Amino acid sequence: LQPDTTLAGLRQAIQSAMGIPAADQRIIYAGTQLIEEYVTPEWRRKRCSGILAAGLGLDKLPDGTPLTLEHYGIQKGSVLNVVRKVSATPSSGACCAAEEPEPLPQQVQGNLDQTRPAAASSAQVGVG
């Protein structure tokens, strides 16, 4: 991954490498979930003040530009946590606490608490 990789590009790379669909990914960096952001006048008013914004070049980005890993402050060697939302659907539409959830795929089964209807698994991705 390069500093100019967008969050959408990162999601595609994770999907290719780990098989987690982009729609199921939650990417966490420094305790904050990253969301796809684009430069807008409102975004610029909130985020483009101060020396850090000027140093990252945020004040010079044209409207409609997607933010890159560099704009999020992610550098070489940073660790991103990828969380996959996994939910078990009860059979025949019935929901009852006494029912067992459907078995989860083997590759994520060891990392999940199967006593809950929805759980999450996670992995770390290094940026290099």
What does this structure look like?
The protein is built from 4 helices and 4 strands. The protein is of the alpha+beta class.
Shape: globular
Largest sheet: 4 strands, antiparallel
Q: Assembly state here?
A: single chain
The averaged pLDDT comes out at 74
Major β-sheet strand ordering: 2-1-3-4
Q: So how many helices?
A: 4
Helix proportion: 10-25%
Quick recap:
By secondary structure, the chain is α+β, with helices and mostly antiparallel strands. It contains 4 helices and 4 strands.
Keywords:
128 residues; alpha+beta; 4-stranded antiparallel sheet; 4 helices; 4 strands; 20% strand
SSE blueprint and pairings:
Layout: H1 7-18, E1 25-29, E2 32-33, H2 41-47, H3 51-55, E3 79-87, H4 106-109, E4 118-126
Antiparallel strand pairs: 1-2, 1-3, 3-4
